[in-house]
């Protein structure tokens, strides 16, 4: 009797192990994200192994190179046709490589690159014990004003961890608009949010405000992401899958193999409606739309200004990308349900942001409320539910992110003894003292206001045109009215800068190094080029405006 | 037992957590309430997984746990640094910035 036969006397053969399919990952098409994650991990190693003196240079150089390489990868993919003809779903259905995701990834990477430039600026603050210092705390763990902090400042410490944190945030943002299932969406949301919470707490000056902003952002952000997660759970319960394509099929009623459990849950509209509402709520929190905007002014004001600029630009791009994909790919079958709600949100966001901004006296809070109003304008394009809607939102996001980073970079320059002079009264007469800085800031404000020959006008025109063609004419009227209200306070700042007497003990304008100068110059250049000759970029956005499903 | 009952429990836990976030004043307790909400989500995921007979929900529950752990690391760091500066973890005291 053979060994196998003896064996069979007291055992039975288990079912053969069914073969687990080897996951197929298209590394080349995911290379932008992978490059950024790799750079961030190397950044962590630099923190561990490189001597403190050379860490700043190593980190700044590594971050800039990483983001530039990732941008080159995005351009290569787009040139290879992955944005148009070869658009498809990669990584076993987790990531969509298509026009909108490549366009938004490119925008986020450029915003991140300019963000690195403003992060690395070390010429604005006066020397501390002979060391050049940047906007970040000497040592985040030490209590402000304590002996340990004084020792850290004296030793010339800087929080170079800000650079890897920025890279981790960028990697999450790259995945967020291209996520093609709800789990990837949630993980990407957390991957880009958690580093931002930390970055907010790292200000060198005004640490109390900075820490307060971080706590508020963290608690509200965690609260919102818990809502998103419960919404994902309900959508999973409704469709039996977290894949965008499957959920879309179940919503449309075109799903082929319906098992009894799915037949039971897909008849339950409460799961779908509440689940979709909660997920959309989490995304609206991230874009800062009005019922969920309360964190925006405090966080924008308290965070270190380079972080604010990066966060304001890149988060909005990533979150609107994810919102577009969710509404256009997963939930187009229930657009008659979500459109009225988004109408209401867009109206209160546009009007609320513009009206409350009028009463602000702090320049960073003013820009925060202006960013809320802009979220409303972009929502008007989202509501269009057309191909033009997608491309106009893409164009608007690209234009808006450069203006925002540039504007916050200018805010870092205007300083007095306590650091940045953000109170509006201190900006009086800035145009007489430093005409160039004031003129540059005026260009950004005019772009925010949507004056012709700036990128803001081209973006607003595209978005409102798409909304009007999508049947949202009342929304366009309200949008134009709130643009007019918003123009009032932008112009008021310009008048304040150029036509009022400067304070004798007013703030001085610091002379930046080439880094911040580059960030501001790129901001101005993009603002003017997109304003004067927008057609090429509108065509680019329009080519990129098709989602893959 | 009908698995739908677990969904009701998940919704109840989620509501308790959300109420806690809104009414409690200590940042640590607020944060614990957020964790309760995440655990309610996990319960819902596992229950739906059981109802549909696929494993997606159970796997997502693991991801949620990892994310919650990462959130604890970041959140406690921020709350502790605020506490050391202010000697208070109350979310009402932190009100330097107002309209």
TrEMBL record, chain A:
Keywords of the record: Cell membrane, Membrane, NAD, Quinone, Translocase, Transmembrane, Transmembrane helix, Transport
Stored Pfam families: Proton_antipo_M (PF00361)
Substrates-to-products reaction catalysed: a quinone + NADH + 5 H(+)(in) = a quinol + NAD(+) + 4 H(+)(out)
Membrane topology: Multi-pass membrane protein
InterPro entries in alphabetical order: NADH-Q_OxRdtase_suN/2, ND/Mrp_TM
Function per UniProt: NDH-1 shuttles electrons from NADH, via FMN and iron-sulfur (Fe-S) centers, to quinones in the respiratory chain. The immediate electron acceptor for the enzyme in this species is believed to be a menaquinone. Couples the redox reaction to proton translocation (for every two electrons transferred, four hydrogen ions are translocated across the cytoplasmic membrane), and thus conserves the redox energy in a proton gradient.
Protein's name in the database: NADH-quinone oxidoreductase subunit N
Species whose genome carries this gene: Streptomyces lannensis
Organism lineage string: Bacteria, Bacillati, Actinomycetota, Actinomycetes, Kitasatosporales
From TrEMBL, chain B:
Lineage: Bacteria, Bacillati, Actinomycetota, Actinomycetes, Kitasatosporales
Cited InterPro entries: NADH_UbQ_OxRdtase_chain4L/K, NUOK/Mnh_C1-like
Subunit structure: NDH-1 is composed of 14 different subunits. Subunits NuoA, H, J, K, L, M, N constitute the membrane sector of the complex.
EC number: 7.1.1.-
Protein name (Swiss-Prot/TrEMBL): NADH-quinone oxidoreductase subunit K
Coiled-coil annotated residue ranges, if any: none
GO biological process: ATP synthesis coupled electron transport
Catalytic reactions on record: a quinone + NADH + 5 H(+)(in) = a quinol + NAD(+) + 4 H(+)(out)
Keyword Ligase: no
Entry's Gene Ontology cellular component terms: NADH dehydrogenase complex; plasma membrane
The organism of origin for this protein: Streptomyces bauhiniae
Topology of the protein relative to the lipid bilayer: Multi-pass membrane protein
Spans traversing the lipid bilayer: 6-23, 28-48, 60-83
Family affiliation: Belongs to the complex I subunit 4L family.
